[in-house]
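Hmm, what's this shape?
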Amino acid sequence: MGREEFRVIGKKFSKVEALEKATGYLKYSGDFYFPNTLHAKILRSPYAHARIRNIDTRKAEKLQGVKAVISYKDIPKINAMHLFLILPSVQYFDSFLLAEKARHVGDRIAAVAATRPEIAEEALSLVQVDYEELPAVFDPIEAMKSSAPVIHDFAKRGEKKIEIRDNVVASLEIEVGDVEKGFRESELVVENEFRTSRPNNAPLERMVITCCPAPGGRLEVYAPAQSIHGLRMNIAYSLGLPPHKINVHRIYLGGAFGGHIHTGFIELICAFLALKIGQPVRAEKTREEMFLAYGRHPFVMKLRSGVKRDGTLMAQYVEMLDETGAYAFSGQSKLTLGAGFFMSMYRCPNMKCVGKTVYTNTPPLTAMRGAGNPQVHFAVESQMDIVAEKLGMDPIALRYKNHLREGDTFYGQGPDIVCKVATCGTEELLKRGAERIGWENRGKLRAGKPWLKRGFGMARGFHTSGAGSPEPSKFMMDYSGAIVKMNEDGTATLLTACVDVGGGNLSAHVAIVAETLGLTIEDVIISQGDTDSTLYDACTHASRSTYAGGLAVKAAAEKVKGVLLHWASNLLEAPPDILEIKDGRVYALENPSASIDIKDLVQTAQYRNWGTAVGEVSLRPTACPPHFTVCFAEVEVDTETGIVRVVRIISGADPGTAINMDNVKGQLVGGFHMGMGYALLEDTLIDRLSGRILNPNFSDYKTFTAVDMPVLDMVVVETFELTGPFGAKGVGEGATNPVAPAIANAIYNAIGVRFKELPITPEKVLKALKENQSSVRKF
């Protein structure tokens, strides 16, 4: 079916949950209340590093209304599992439900369940803890020194116990080709160091989980999660329960951006308390606790690039240092992902990545919209502009020459998740983006006032569409399932475990069912579902939901279509291969007057006892096609205040087939917003003496608002990805990746000062201007 023949795909339609959200009918995790619910609170360490000599909970236990107080003495001696997405045989384990040794300010020491939240809070104040404060380290480079305090002595990878040396969680070294040979053959070698920050995912929805004991020793769980099956497995493993004892309900999320890929500690503690007491338990994070639980990994990257004088890349080498905080919920995964993304930035015959993941006495970090890719993009796309300048070459021309294209190897989520690029809209995106921004005026912009400097910058980017590859990964799971069934009135119901985090991926799935079965959007019903009733879906991550989840949905709908055509063949006395479904009817192609309404067809099948038309599919995608993106930025730098204002943006994407163009553009807007914050503003500030977060709330942690957004123009270049559902790829995370380097490159174009550390704050701008007075571009 060609794009011009689509009846639903590519058309504008509202998100399926839009009316429920607008009317307040839709329930988020905080909207679930059950009789006799208890409230859980967690006692947190005031120290960045401390051993617990003794803990006394007797006074807290005697407080009226308190039902349970637990510490490390009361929990199962089972390692906590935080990321079932990683195969358990290679997963990293370094924590328990509650800590015997605090490793960061805010680490969990004890937990209370009481009849009211204020009683639980009071009980926390009655828990007496005798701490032995220990030396702490907050910088990853300092943490690797032999004199640094030891944060963890041991950890486990799968069932294997490993010794931790110099606070290094894991190391990797990957090489393609011969990097040293590539540098010898290069005519220019450029080396720079880049550093990124630790912005917080900062979803508006605060984490709320309710766990309800059920007959048979089962537990019903209501919580925000990017994988309901992953949350079930994490709870079951951490509590030593068989998975069938846990049923997790799928709920719409009020924001995640990667934060709910991981199962935190509060979910596990809440589940443990509910089973221990035998009553529903509800746990709700404060905003400060939200800042303790999420955040993008800071990277330090030493990047070396070798090129020919004509701009041909000959060698790319990077040393990555990944700071994971006090716990490594997924071991070296961000490092592994970063390595795969680095190797996929440009076509280059010789590439090498070496890296380490390091503990510090800071709160643990999670995935955040790109999981290693925004960090790599900032370094590599800044480096490409530096190389272009040294060659006297236009930055766009350098990217034209070296970008990944059809037939090249792409590493989707690390070095063993590989596919061949089949579709690439990069060149068209670069061309149209340059035209829209007026690239020929670069270096000639005027701001009207001598202290205001204008500049253009750009960067190209990508992200994967899932983690599929011809051969399954040895460390990451990626498969999806879907069930589609016809109802007696001719409508269809879709049952999937895929979680919608607000991007509209479930609306895309509805469109895929409607297109396949010749129905309207309104004719397809999404069931909320739970782990009892749905097939496994890996996770809403890696921009995989429309692509990988959509493949399963389309295959399930195709099964239903086959049943409908078989039934219609009997009734219309025509072979199934000459029948077509569209506009709610089944037609005979050779005789359009011979047709039957789908509602009548389904009812006739029911009355004749033919059964229910249903399709169920569980499948693994065998590719992870990159969706390519670009960002062109125009900025204005105030040289008196150091404030950078983004004036205009051209944001572009190649999503394959746009299932819903409004969703694609929405992702471009949201992705740019997060990228602008990453570039100029957002960072979690940690006191280097105490280890406390200095800005754990929205009063002190600043994000850009709608009034800060520049004029945003969008370019969508549709390709047709043969491996995707109706030609679709992903788009969500790729929209963020090129934004920070595009803004940094524009700042350099405006004032002639290169920033290699994020965020680029006014203080840093003023300091750099003072140190580089001769470099500032004059008019």
Q: What stands out?
A: The mean pLDDT is 95. The chain has three domains: 36-134+217-284, 299-469+623-775, 480-537+545-619. The domain at 36-134+217-284 is CATH 3.90.1170.50 (Aldehyde Oxidoreductase; domain 3).
